[in-house]
Design a protein that fits this description.
about 40% strand; 5-stranded antiparallel sheet; mainly beta; 8-stranded mixed sheet; 2 domains; about 325 residues; elongated
Length: about 325
């Protein structure tokens, strides 16, 4: 909870020098420090994910990381999907043009020049949000040359993930599942009076409310389980309550009432369950102090919402 994404800085990645800059960001954020451990960064990608079977290859026997899955291009159809680049491997390669060799210095696409688009060796390590059952333990390799795609302009950019530090005072720890995450609806409310019957302030975390993109509910996280396609395991996640508590004033951290609601979208037949819930407290330096377990009377929700009220203490 201490370090969080503060924003993204997208830059093109269509040349060898731009790929090298991205590699440097992943390794040490392009800030080498002598005799100190390197602290790398993360990169965000907007991938086109339709018909991936046409561009997904298995690294053959005898090659580096044989048996691993590899994308040689973005999918030829579909819409954008956010994925995360967590590293790179310059030895990963695939004979894309079928000439029996894996090269980076031959005009393999026949356009009369040698550019990043011709590279058959070197790949980013990409992780998805569809659970461990997707690809190999939730990750796949993406050739550097895939970043040069005139048919998918958004896929030619990498977003450097900027991180900021926060010191939470109270957080909410949830463990839940839902078989259709696009229809999940969760609201969190608070009131100053521990005997209150309704909240004074509420908010709906986007990640637990379909994560509507660009304000449009039709652009969402997908009609799949919360953990990803084919994965019905519950997820544990934390939500910082500090911004909500700050609306009640500086002494509100000591006492108050918490209101939780778990439901589904109108006309949906989705089902979900809250497996555990707790309120965690921290000191002024952000160090964890204690946890108060919240009682769950009936964990299941669907057409009938699950509502919980408890005292903040």
């Amino acid at each position: 909870m201490e370090y969080r994404v503060a924003g993204y800085r997208y830059t093109p990645t269509a040349t060898v020098s731009q790929i090298n800059e991205a590699r440097g960001w992943l390794f040490d954020r392009n800030q080498p420090k002598k005799n100190q451990e390197s602290i790398g960064g993360l990169l965000a990608l907007d991938g086109r994910m339709g018909e991936l079977d046409k561009v997904t290859k298995t690294i053959p026997a005898g090659e580096h990381l044989a048996g691993e899955d590899l994308w040689i291009r973005w999918g030829p159809s579909g819409y954008g999907h956010g994925i995360t680049c967590v590293g790179y491997d310059d030895q990963v390669g695939f004979d894309v043009n079928g000439d029996g060799k894996i090269t980076n210095d031959i005009d393999s696409n026949g356009d009369g020049k040698v550019t990043l688009a011709d590279a058959e060796r070197g790949a980013f390590i990409v992780v998805n949000s569809w659970g461990k059952k997707w690809s190999n333990d939730g990750k796949i390799y993406l050739l550097y040359s895939a970043m040069v795609d005139p048919t998918w302009e958004r896929g030619n950019f990498l977003g450097r993930i900027e991180v900021s530090r926060h010191l939470p005072q109270r957080t909410l720890k949830l463990k839940l599942d839902c078989n259709k995450r696009s229809d999940l609806r969760v609201s969190i409310g608070i009131a100053r009076d521990k005997n209150a019957t309704k909240p004074e302030h509420e908010f709906e975390p986007q990640v637990l409310n379909g994560w509507p993109l660009f304000g449009n509910r039709r652009n969402n996280v997908g009609e799949v389980p919360l953990a990803g396609p084919g994965d019905d395991i519950p997820l544990e996640l934390g939500i910082d309550l500090t911004p909500l508590l700050s609306k009640l004033g500086p002494d509100a951290v000591v006492d108050g009432r918490l209101f939780l609601s778990f439901s589904i979208a109108e006309k949906s037949e989705a089902l979900g369950a809250l497996h555990s819930c707790a309120i965690r407290s921290y000191d002024a330096k952000g160090t964890y102090v204690s946890e108060s377990v919240v009682s769950i009377p009936d964990p299941f929700f669907g057409n009938t919402p699950l509502t919980i009220e408890t005292t903040l203490h």
